[in-house]
Amino acid sequence: MRFVRDPTSEASATKRPPRALPADITGKTIALLDISKERSDEFLDHLEVKFSEAGFPVKRYRKPSNSKNATPELIQAIVQDADIVVESLAD
Amino acid sequence: MADTDNGIIAVVKRDCPTCELVEPVLKRLEEAGTLVRVYSQDDPAFPASIADVQDDRSLERSFHLNVEFVPTLIRLEDRRESGRVFGWNREEWERFTGIQGIGEGLPANQPGCGSKSVEPGIPEQLQARYGEVPFKSRKVEYSDWDDVMEQAFDRGWTDGLPVVPPTDARILRMLTGTDRAPDEVVGIMPPDLKECTVEKIAVNAVMAGARPEYMPVILAVVEAALKPKFTLHGVLCTLNFAGPVIMVNGPVTKSIGMNWGGNCLGQGNRANATIGRTLQLLVRNVGGGRPGEIDRAVFGNPGKYTYCFAEDETDPDWEPLHVSRGCTPGSNAVTLHHGHGVTGFSDSAARGADELARSLSLMLVNEMHPKKTQCANVIVAISPEHYRIYKDDGWGRKEIEEALHHYTTRPGKDLIKGAQGINEGIDPALAEEMVPKFWRDHGILLVRAGGPGGLQTAIIGGWSGGRNHDEIQPVTHQF
Q: Considering the domain boundaries, does residue A1 fall inside one?
């Protein structure tokens, strides 16, 4: 038997199911995450108005660039301060 | 049976005139009981006069004996080496064997030949077969019935073109191009954020078809690509056309035979092709960045197979790109840009530097979109014929860059959203300002490249991520 060496990182992905949607969002704090892509903010401005009119507390967050991963600090802040996050993709 | 644990053994090959010369001497030593065995590297029938010739065409014994020259005599005491001589020197052989008057009629001295076990390409094969290798990468076995090239496709290891199978011998050979340890972590490769070791780089360099002498450049390219400012994660997953473009500066470009001349952005040069391809294979294999998965490019561009060239530094009056970006003159460096395909600019009528710069600027303002500004960076590669026009007017890098920035700065009123009946555009608050097309410090990466004969300039537009000026920039890395 001959062999070659594996060129990959030799990691295997773990598939995790998404968390279940909350059964009731009454009173939940909504995080709006702007990924800094063009017109991302326009979409979230609209959502903020709609959520606020409906009586939801809203918090705004922003990645410095859509091209880099969200920092652990940003993710932790959202986890601590909000119940539901809406992330805007745009172009 | 002769005691082969004690006495002198010889390693020879028929292809060595000195080995043929000393055959009578070997016979005399055998008759004296001093010589107990001969290993022949290329012909077990040689030397014909010796009784105990062992076939070492596999070179296994030569490898374990660490033979560098033939003929070599090795003295064994209880199977342990207690001395060796090589080549032919009568006095030395007499001293070594304790037998006087050997080799009568032969010249007093004749150098030997290189051992077959140290011929180019062979030591690594012997190391892989008979020695130990330090690799940690998993062995992926295949049988004689398997097509290893097809298996590489099936396992998702390739960019769509065949790859060179990464055998231990080839990886060992690739690693001769660097002093760095195989287990050294060069950086963390996105998107999976996995450790990228020198070993993994060598494995993928083998697959890309690179040569060992490219390794210093390849390692520098990986280090540059993994600098946070370059934002490799972003460029590998973007919807945009862009992929990494590598420009190499310094003496290394000549020593490894890179192309900065005719067709330097095209096919045909092994160094250009395989250095760029290695980075892309690393992104795919170590990082896990694959098209259709996290690579979301709408079109991509052909440079995502490979995109690498050298700068023409043959004119001492020209300040090379890396020096303009802070590197030491005469040093080696790589500069990475997030690039699209090539846009050709052809102007055969301009007769002066200023006219040519104005003409070129008409093309440059269209990058990404004519009404967008400071949203992407651009490589401007000037051919020798266009460079001659600038130089004849006394222009160098500074003057050309100054003119291109000047002529690509336009009135904001023509570019704002809605202007010219087109919604795309810049912030209306800039309507009364003159707005530059490119960032001043790195928006235009000016290089000399290309072959003679055409009044052309190559433009390589850039990734829209470049609009995030503080976060994302081209990077230059000296090595």
A: no
Among A2, A11, A64, beta carbon nearest to B192? A11
**Contact state of A1 with B195 under an 8 Å Cβ cutoff:** no
Confidence check: pLDDT of B4 > 90: no
Task: Confirm whether B2 is domain-assigned.
Answer: no
Contact A7 B281 (CB under 8 A): yes
Structural domain contains residue A81? yes
Element (H, E) at A75: helix A72-81
Q: Which residues of A touch B (CB under 8 A)?
A: 1-11, 36, 64-69, 91
pLDDT value of residue A90: 67
Question: Is B468 in the A-facing interface, judged by CB distances under 8 Å?
Answer: yes
Pairwise CB contact (< 8 Å): A7 & B194? no
Number of C-alpha atoms within 13 angstroms, CB side, residue B366?
9
In a domain, residue B185? The reply is yes
Interface ipTM: 0.90
Structural domain span for residue A81: 30-88
Is A19 among the domain residues?
Answer: no
Mean pLDDT of B289-295: 94
Last residue within a domain, chosen from B93, B117, B141? B117
**Cβ contacts (< 8 Å) between A69 and chain B: which residues?**
233
Residue B255 lies in a domain: yes
Flag if A5 and B468 touch (Cβ within 8 Å).
no
Alpha-carbon distance A26 to nearest alpha carbon in chain B (angstroms): 35
Q: Which of A4, A66, A91 sits opposite B165 (nearest CB)?
A: A4
Last residue of a domain, one of B71, B93, B117: B117
Predicted local confidence at residue A37, as pLDDT? 83
Shortest Cα distance, chain A CAs vs residue B289, angstroms: 11
- Mutation pick from B135, B139, B235 vs chain A, by most beta carbons of A within 10 Å, is B139
Total tally of structural domains belonging to chain B:
2
Q: Among A7, A65, A68, select the one facing B166 at the smallest CB separation.
A: A7
Domain extent, residue B46, equals 7-117
The domain tally of chain A equals 1
Same domain, B45 and B192: no
Segment A29-87, tens digit of pLDDT: 999 999 888 888 889 999 999 999 999 999 999 988 888 888 889 999 999 999 999 98
Are B299 and B202 in the same domain?
yes
| Domain presence at residue B206 | yes
